[in-house]
Amino acid sequence: MSSSATHPADDERCPCGSGDTFGSCCGPILRGQRRAATAEALMRSRYTAFSTRDLEHALASWHPNSRPQRRDLAASLAETRWLRLDVRETTGGGPFDDEGTVEFVAIARTDQGRRELHELSHFSKVDGAWVYVRGEIAATRH
Ligand SMILES: [Zn+2]
């Protein structure tokens, strides 16, 4: 979709860290070939979109009411290099739910150094598709 996205090959490791291949994990979701069945799958596909600079999926997976401006998100994607995702906990978010949360820690490198994002993300369904609504910064436990 996005000409600037740098997706891995289908037989390479998925950037979201699921341990699966890109072609059987986030790949088909980023390409719009299938929908994320769970809030966690959508969250993973968003992480992969951010880490591969797939602006189209990053925007499309955002709730229309909270979606950022395209140019602001493009700038954010360009300045951050995402290195790792750890999903900590989920609530709801299953195929038969309408809402769900995913708590995760994501590690990034920016011009200012290493950044750790610990977030509790809220997801809901719009027209049967999971979308990201908002996130709260969670307290980091070490
Ligand atoms: Zn994945």
Q: Would you kindly provide a written description of the structure presented here, covering whatever features stand out?
A:
With 142 residues, this protein is α+β, with helices and mostly antiparallel strands. The protein has one domain: Roll (Nuclear Transport Factor 2, Chain: A). The chain is built from four helices and four strands; from the N terminus they run ααααββββ. It has helices spanning 27-30, 39-51, 55-60, 70-79, and strands spanning 81-92, 99-110, 113-126, 129-137. A four-stranded antiparallel β-sheet has the order 1-2-3-4. The radius of gyration is 14 Å and the shape is globular. The chain starts with 26 loop residues before the first helix and ends in a 5-residue tail after the last strand. The model has no long low-confidence stretch (mean pLDDT 94). The site of zinc ion has 7 residues, from helix 2. Zinc ion binds at residues 14, 16, 18, 25-26, 44, 48.
Structure at a glance:
23% of the residues lie in helices and 33% in strands. It has 142 residues and is α+β, with helices and mostly antiparallel strands.
Structural key phrases:
4 strands; binds zinc ion; alpha+beta; SEC_C_motif; 142 residues; Nuclear Transport Factor 2, Chain: A; NTF2-like_dom_sf; YchJ-like_M; 4 helices
